[in-house]
Amino acid sequence: MKLFGYKLPAMSSLLLWGLLWEIIGQMDVTFFVPPLSEVFVTLFSIIGTPAFTKALSETAYAFSSGVVISILIGIPVGILMGTSRLVDEILLPWVNMFLSAPLTALVPVLMVLFGFGMKSIIITTVLFAIWIIVLNSRAGVMQINRSLVEMAKSFGANKMDAFTKIYFWAALPEILGGVRIGIIRAVKGVIIGQLLISIVGFGALFELYSANFLMAHFWAVLIVLFALAFCISEILAYLERRVAYYAAKR
Amino acid sequence: MDMSQIKDTAKQDVDVAVSVRGVSKNYGDVEALKDLSLDFPRGELTSLLGPSGCGKTTLLKIIAGLLEPTSGQVEVNGKTVTGPGPNRAFVFQDFALLPWATVLRNVAFGLELRGVAKSERESIAEKYIKDVGLAGFENSYPHELSGGMRQRVGLARALSVDAKVLLLDEPFSAVDEQTRRKFQEDLLALVKNENKTFIFVTHSIEEAVYVSDQIAILLPRPSRVSEIIRPSGFRDKPVDQIRRDREYLDIVDKIWASLRNYVE
Q1: Closest partner residue to B94 among A147, A161, A245, by Cβ?
Q2: Would A21 disulfide with which of A36, A193, B17, B131, CB 3.0-4.6 Å?
C-alpha cells in the first residue's frame, strides 16, 4: 500500500492497531486491556520461565504429534477415497459429519476415554485437523486428468507407482491447501483441548492467569500463540506457492 | 468388398504384428464395437479412420490393454493381450505429460516405471529428446512448451521404451495445422527408419491417406471394419509430392464418399 507517495512496509496496519491498543490501555478504560507495552514487557519476562517453556514444549509436542498423525493418516485415506468408489461411499458421510461437527463437545468424552492428559489433547488435535486434509486430498485426486492415470498404466505402472508417482503429485496443490487449513485447525484443537483439560500446557497457564486476573500475562501468552499460528500458516502458504507452477496447468 | 478375402490374402503374405479377433465391447446396452477383426502388418502404419463415435479410440485402448474387450481377443506377436505390456507404447491425444516433471523426466518416465536406473534412462531419454528435435529443452516444464513440442515429448517417451508397437491416439489433433503437417512428414520418416508397427487413430481423411500403409475404415453403431484400403503408388514418393498424387486424391475422395452418410 502507498500513503502520500511512500510505500508502506508489509503489515504496517498492525502498527496502527497496536497503537490503538496502547492508547486504550494507557487510558485505563478496563483492566482487561493493559497497555500493549506492558504486555510485551510481561511477554519477555515470562518467556524464559520454566512454567512458560514447559507449556510451550508440551503444546508443541501435542500439536506436532497431532499434525503428523493427521497428515500421515489423512492424505492416504483421502487419496484412497478419491480412487476407490467403495471406500468413498463408506467414509464420506463420516468425514463430512466430523468436519462440521462441534468437536469441542467431544472433548469431555475423550477425557473420559483417554484420561486427563496428553493423549486426549493429541486426539483432540487430530480430530480438528484431519478431516479437511482427507477431503482436500480426495478432491485433489478426483480432479486428476484421467489420461495421466492411463499413461502410467500403459507404461506398466503398478498400484504403488500410480499412488506415489501420479496421484500424490497430481493432488499435491490441493493436499497442501488441506494441510494448511488442517494445521490452522490443529492450533485451535490443541488450545481448546488444553483449555478444557486445563492442567496441561498453555491451558494450565491460561487458567492460572485468568483466575488471578493477570491480564498482561494472559495477553502475552495469546500473542505468542497467534504469532506461532501465523508463522506456520505462512510457511505452508510458501510451500503451496512452490507447486503453483503446475497447479493451474494440470 | 469381401472382407474375408482381404484377411486371407493379408495372412498369407504379410507378417502380422497385431491381430484383433472378433472383438466386441459393450458399455451397458451400448455396443461400441461388434465382432471386429483386423490385422496390422509388421513394420507398417495402419490408420483407424472413421466418424466420431465409431469406436476407434476404444479399439486402440483395447489393443493397448487399457480396456478389456467384452468378447474376442487381441494378439500381439501371437500372444494374447491381457493388459498393458512393454511391447506396446501409447501416444496420447492430450499428451498426458506430468506437469510437475521436466521434459527429461517425462521422456524417461516409461523407463522409470520399468525400473531402469536413473543415469541409464536419462541417457536414453536424452537421445530421443534430440531425435524429436527438442535438444536444449531437457529441463523445461511442459507448460513452458507449445502444443506441438509437448506432443514431441509424448512421442519421445513412447519411443524411448523401445516398444515394437506404437499406438497413437489422434496425436496431432491438438496441435496447429502447420505443426501437424511437419509431424506427418516426421511420422513418415519414423515409419521408414524404425522397424516398428504403428497403429494410428485419426478423424482426418487426408492425414490417414497421407501417412498410412493401410487404412481401416470403421463405421459406427456398432463399430465394424467396412473397408481396408492399401495405398500403393505414392508411398515411396518424396513427402512434398504425395498430396498432388493422383491415387492420393482418388483415395481421399473415395473415403469421403463412403463416410459422408455417417456425418451428422
Answers
A1: A147
A2: A36
